[in-house]
Design a protein that fits this description.
Elements: H1 2-9, H2 23-30, E1 50-54, H3 61-74, E2 82-86, H4 93-106, E3 112-117, H5 126-134, E4 141-147, H6 150-158, E5 172-174, H7 180-187, H8 189-196, H9 200-206, H10 208-221, H11 225-234, H12 239-255, H13 260-273, E6 277-278, H14 280-287, H15 291-302, E7 307-310, E8 313-316, E9 319-322, E10 328-332, H16 335-346, H17 351-358, H18 362-382, E11 394-399, E12 402-410, E13 413-418, H19 425-436, E14 440-447, E15 452-453, E16 458-461, H20 462-470, H21 476-479
Parallel strand pairs: 1-4, 1-5, 2-3, 3-4, 13-14, 14-16
Antiparallel strand pairs: 6-10, 7-10, 8-9, 11-12, 12-13, 15-16
Helix pairs in contact: 1-4, 4-5, 7-8, 10-11, 12-16, 13-15, 13-16, 14-15, 18-20
């Protein structure tokens, strides 16, 4: 049985060109969205390291693995030294062990490449990996483990301490939905090159019309490649893409030992208040569950890469840290996730109807804007490395009548970002700026309007901010241009 699984999932052993007919590779080749994730620059198949790759369902993890396999074959690596296994097709860690043993028993190569997809589908998946490393079999191998549940994969990876090779930077990565910069690079590479050359703000203004066009598409389907490809080809997102995403989430919730009923009630409440603030006790009181159950479920829901929780900052020994005693700000990380949850909870099957509520309605669009800004602040601060713990460098700010959407800290730079020009906007900015000292504060009011430099802050169109964050252009050098 083990050999049948290997042969079935690795057709390039018999014919190297078979990789081009793989469904995921073929779909990529036919797609209008040629996403080259920035994460590829950090994963090196030439090193003997056990990498982990996490991210939400349907974001493109399997496609990324298959493209890496094609790249290895095109570089002349013996196809029989490459093993891909979809662990969702295996029944237990014992069967997983038998598949790995069968591969190594027939492999004649001294160096091997293992692509172990959705390993969290198997309980105790780390046992055979740990054993093979301990007996020396994996010590000359590149291994990448993927999963859609942060906690399950992290728990297994922790059992591999001392068995992951030598590295300086973390080998644990997260593939979140495309940033706006990655999206433009995927669908309009010529424009992308024009934007990243020269002064970033000047380039964005010169190509404003094209950037705005891509932004409108980006907000309609988010950073999920399959949804974007459908939008670009058909003018809408196919309903089955949304339904399949929801089915995966339902499956992962129940497989993770959570109550589906409670998870739905928590997510429904989150969607209703997002991007507002609330405590787990408040949610528990409203839906009739204990706050312990709500807290436990909420943390595991976050591990599915659907939503993030932010805290206000407090000062400890001159450092800003999250104030865990205060209410959390609920922010979903991508518009497509919001549309999928909207369908799940309200039964709306028309994407046009969802767009009327979220994209074209000013209030709904403002909520989407905050989701997009947070997604890009996460990339600006943490890159593609996994942030398992709570976000410790991104906050919301609220004190008395003063309020700011986001404060993000990176080195000695602090971004203070607001999307709503409230009556006491200037006072809020001043208070937040004092809080982040001695860091250099960049105060940004992001709007749907034009770029404008004010004495105390800069008014910046949303797509400009997203692009600058996703291409890491907001640096000390950028500051000198302001």
């Amino acid at each position: 049985m083990s050999m049948e699984i290997i042969v079935e999932q690795n057709p390039w052993w018999e014919n190297p060109e078979a990789i081009d007919m793989d469904p995921f590779v073929k779909a990529y080749d036919e797609s209008l969205v040629k996403w080259h994730p920035n994460i590829l620059d950090d994963i090196d198949p030439g090193r003997n390291i056990v990498y982990s790759l996490r991210g939400p369902r349907q974001v493109g993890k399997t496609t990324l693995l298959k493209l890496m396999i094609r790249c290895l074959i095109e570089k002349g690596v013996d196809p029989r030294s490459i093993l891909y296994i979809s662990c969702e097709s295996l029944s237990s860690w014992k069967e997983f062990r038998d598949v790995l043993k069968a591969f190594f028993s027939m492999s004649t190569e001294t160096r091997t490449y293992l692509f172990l997809d959705e390993v969290t589908a198997i309980s105790d998946w780390s046992r055979p990996v740990k054993y093979l490393y301990d007996v020396g079999i994996l010590r000359n191998s590149f291994v990448i483990l993927s999963g859609s549940h942060a906690i399950d994969l992290l728990t297994g990876v922790e059992r591999l301490v001392g068995r992951r090779g030598e590295y300086v930077k973390t080998p644990d990565f997260v593939l979140l939905p495309m940033t706006f910069g990655e999206y433009i690079r995927a669908v309009d590479p010529k424009l992308y090159q024009n934007l990243i050359s020269g002064d970033p703000l000047d380039s964005l203004m010169i190509h404003h019309k094209a950037v705005k066009h891509h932004y409108e598409n980006y907000i309609k389907a988010g950073g999920f490649p399959q949804a974007q490809d459908s939008l670009l080809k058909l003018g809408h997102v196919k309903f089955h893409i949304i339904r399949e995403f929801v089915n995966y989430i339902r499956q992962d919730i129940t497989k993770g030992g959570l109550s589906l009923e409670l998870a739905i009630q928590i997510l429904r409440k989150m969607l209703a208040i997002f991007p507002g603030t609330i405590s787990w006790r408040a949610i528990a009181s409203e839906i009739g569950y204990s706050h312990v159950s709500v807290s436990s479920h909420a943390e595991k829901i976050r591990a599915l890469f659907l939503v993030e929780y932010l805290y206000p900052p407090k000062t400890e020994e001159r450092f800003l840290v999250p104030d865990l005693k205060k209410d959390k700000k609920i922010v979903f990380i991508d518009p497509f996730i919001i549309y999928a949850l909207h369908y799940w909870f309200y039964g709306t099957t028309s994407i046009s109807r969802m767009w009327r509520k979220w994209v074209y309605d000013p209030q709904g669009r403002g909520r989407l804007l905050e989701a997009l800004v947070l997604r890009h602040l996460i990339y600006w601060v943490y890159g593609s490395t996994l942030k398992e713990e709570i976000l410790d460098s991104i906050f919301y700010f609220r004190k008395n009548d003063k309020e700011i959407d986001f404060i993000a800290i990176k080195g000695d730079i602090a971004l203070i970002v607001e999307s709503k020009k409230r009556k006491k906007f200037i006072r809020s900015l001043t208070t937040a700026e004092a809080l982040v000292r001695p860091r250099r504060a960049i105060k940004i009011l992001t709007t749907e309007g034009e770029l404008e430099k004010k004495p105390q802050f800069i008014v910046m169109p949303v797509p400009y901010l997203l692009f600058l964050l996703s291409t890491d252009k907001i640096t000390k050098k950028f500051l000198k241009t302001l």
